[in-house]
DNA sequence: AACGTCCTCAACCGCTGTAGA
DNA sequence: ATCTACAGCGGTTGAGGACGT
């Protein structure tokens, strides 16, 4: 036996709410409080079903709703949480005060998801998806000489491009994200200058994410640490998140480097709970003056910067085919 | 100006989980 | 244990605005 409908559909209005309806609903709830949605429309003089009233209230009329554009911090948080929780929009919304699950879901589907796809990142698994990469933009990022790219070079590149190199690209971008302190554009330099880095840390209510200080004295080309996050639920079933990390050291040797990168990616895939490459922990924790409200261009730039990396000298022979 | 296409997001639909009778 | 009402969730839809030709 199927469920009986929550209300008699006949004669009930559907579609967009009018200001008058909003006023009726708001006034009623202010006086009586929310709840008892089944009887609310009748009592409030609305020709709507209770479900519609509840949705209108929770998604639009509630006084604590924060309207307007999502900040970059909020985007960061959404991406981080989505990488852990998946499409649990209500759980994500509960960590973003003033935002509704519906709003977050819409924003994900219309903005963030597309942006990740453009970056070659699978929005479901949050892993780099090589088949999704917009190679032209990647190549522009890498070489900064779009005019020098030609079809012949691209074809040769395609023939020679292999999984290892693309993983290198993907993981290098991840590293640049993680290791970048304030300016994303500086990230790649960290890897070629053998710097002693003190990566940032995140310590918030939901996350424990510590990056160790790394000494990279003997590294020829790259140095860095890949944090691999995993998630577990507590026996009590609450949603406290426990994030663990695996460190993957990267060193100069080609084979070792690609091997490390493969391991890093395998770890990610095995855990199926993934770090979000486009989000840096220090951003969440940062009190920097980084511009957090952004135009579309700034947001695109913010994300595309995350895929900027430099080809080490030892890979010059590969890079040469583009030029 | 007119038309077509794309994009956004409020609202709906169908389903599940839960509490109470 | 079963049934029912209700709240809530996630996926989907479609109206309307923005944009391009």
UniProtKB/TrEMBL annotation:
Residues 9-61, 62-112 form the Myb-like domain. SMART domains: SANT. The keyword Lipoprotein does not apply. It is found in: Nucleus. The keyword Repeat applies. Keywords: DNA-binding, Nucleus, Repeat. GO terms for cellular component: nucleus. Residues 9-61, 62-116 form the HTH myb-type domain. GO terms for molecular function: DNA binding. CDD domains: SANT (cd00167). Pfam families: Myb_DNA-binding (PF00249). PANTHER family: F14D16.11-RELATED. This is MYB/HD-like transcription factor. It comes from Glycine max (Soybean). The lineage of its organism: Eukaryota, Viridiplantae, Streptophyta, Embryophyta, Tracheophyta.
